[in-house]
Here is the input.
Amino acid sequence: MTIHEDARPERGAREEAMPSGQGPSQRQLLFEPNISINGLINEGTVPFFLGRLQDVRDSGQDMLMELNTNGGDADAARRIAHEIRLFRRHSGRNAYCVGKTNVYSAGVTVFAAFPKPCRFLTEDAVLLVHERRMETNITLNGPMKSCI
Here is the structure.
């Protein structure tokens, strides 16, 4: 898992520093994650993630996350991503993520919380990015000119 020359940021792009010290081995990244999200991201994923994150904090280890998801709740993903950024900022430890097979939709939000040098994809991984979709009803009441 090396950073190829063509994967470096373009000139003028904001570069994120590589974590200090030696990072985890390929074996650790692929086979020994201390947090795994496998399946849809929903409201239940947030407390599950927070419990695993507390275990990582208590252990004093770097975060090694495995991510394989078909997506899910965008707001739950945003909360998980925020907690990852807080961990990185305040724990003094590094956080790494390996996307395996599917990193769709809300999973991309979580994946993006890790700096570029700390996120990896397996060779079969597929990313899916799309616009956020919302469905709602709007009621217009009164003369049309006043509602526009």
User: Anything to note?
Assistant: The longest helix spans residues 74-91. The chain is about 35% helix and 20% strand. The mean pLDDT is 86. The helical segments are 26-31, 45-59, 74-91, 106-111, 144-147.
